[in-house]
Design goal:
Length: about 90
């Protein structure tokens, strides 16, 4: 899971690898750990995913969830540009 947060106008990125923590989606704890690493409350976080069953844990925790089509990267001409507009 990758996370992006805005802090004072700059978008610092952090990555969070579930295998390093022994928790995997849809367990809400993985999303809480990611929020903790970023220093944001779940209700201030946006989880972007392409698997409703796996990503429901973020919504359970209180994160906003934006689902995207599960397409290969080369079939997403705008990449995730539209999602960044939600931040």
């Amino acid at each position: 899971m990758a996370a992006l947060s805005r802090h004072q106008g700059n978008p610092p990125c952090a990555y969070f690898l579930s295998f390093e923590h022994g928790v995997k989606k849809p367990d809400p704890r993985i999303f809480q750990m990611a929020c903790d690493k970023l220093g944001v409350a779940p209700d201030d976080a946006l989880m972007v995913g392409d698997e409703p069953i796996a990503d429901v844990g973020a919504a359970t925790l209180g994160c906003r969830v934006q689902l995207v089509d599960p397409l290969p990267v080369d079939q997403r001409p705008g990449a995730l540009a539209e999602v960044l507009q939600l931040l």
